[in-house]
Amino acid sequence: MRTAVRIWVVAGGSLVLAAWTAAALLSRASVLVVVLPSVAALWLLLLLDSGYLIGRQWAHRRRRRVGQPRREAWTPAPETRRPIDYPNVLPRPPGDTPVDRQGRFRATGIRLAALPALAVMCLTVQTVFLEQGGDLGLGFVLAECLLLVSMVWTVWTSQEPSQPWVTSRVRAELFRREMFLLLASVGPYLGRTEEEAGQVRDARLSLLTAAGPAELGTFARLCDRASDGTERHWQDAVWQYREEGVPPADAETAERMRTYLDHRVRRQSLFFELAAGTCERTEDGLGRTAKGAVLAAVAVAVAYAVLLHAGRGEDGPSGTSAVIALLAASLPPLCNMALAVQNLFASQRLAASYREARQELLGHENTLRRLLAEPAGAESAASFRSLVVRVESTLTEELRRWRIIVAKTEFEAGL
Question: How far is it, in rounded angstroms, from Cα 153 to Cα 157?
Fold first, then answer.
């Protein structure tokens, strides 16, 4: 759903809520009054869900503007060929959009984290502000039940909620890896003629397109498996190929090195740098929110205790104490909500993984620059192929860590 459509959906929901509220106040009909809190609760969930996705699109455009100077600094020299300019190398086929899948996963997780806090607020409003047996009090109880049922239903029906996002990103990364394996003639393409490499490429891309989560995990391994179950790592195959005295490479080896340096190593390093910065800012914001909620909850609890002590002789609670009671009951669930969202994003762990992968890529970049400065020959060609396997091993390991961090068997409601 596009941002403009979401804005119109939020506006339509707001109009429905306003019309329902006006009808309930003017007509005083019991049905309208009882259902009003449930309508307001549904509107809050709609606002929370669509508001996050709208804000996500805005933040994505802002990050693009802020990161533009860094991307311009990466831009390769005009004479450097793109990967798809080489024989047999094909662009990644069009497929899913990982950003949308990630957004949907996180929007659902945020909504689940907010449901307990909203349910507690409904119960507190009904207990503190409304008389027993009234239509509006009954409506808040029904709204609380609606929120809790919605939470349980979402958790039970959303098994493996991160799987579409994980599968989409893993498949995209493996498509990209296949392009560079073919470019460097390593892995399944080592020692192949152009015709043979094209046949292997078509077979592997077809397999990758139809692969499920389990098959993608097997496909990501940096080794060839024989029919008897034995495996040969691509790194070992590179040096065995070199020792057999096979011609090292074609005349484009140095040009392929430059392409790999700019379009694989440096570009991926830039991605990790920008992604780590985004994760660190997100973690900082969520951490500050959680700490602020804890401090506010402590302050409100102390104030509520003071008011209770000062108003011992009063017949009923004052308006001020009622508001403080609402805050005292609502702030702890809000704090828990912030912690649940922080756990959902896992920004700190992702940033550490990105930083580690980038540091390894910087070492590979220095090695590749040294190879480019050396005279072309069989030794440098073999070293380049070996380096490509090490780079792809680094990126595959980062992808494995990312999958472990973000994958969830089910949502964890913020209880």
Answer: 6
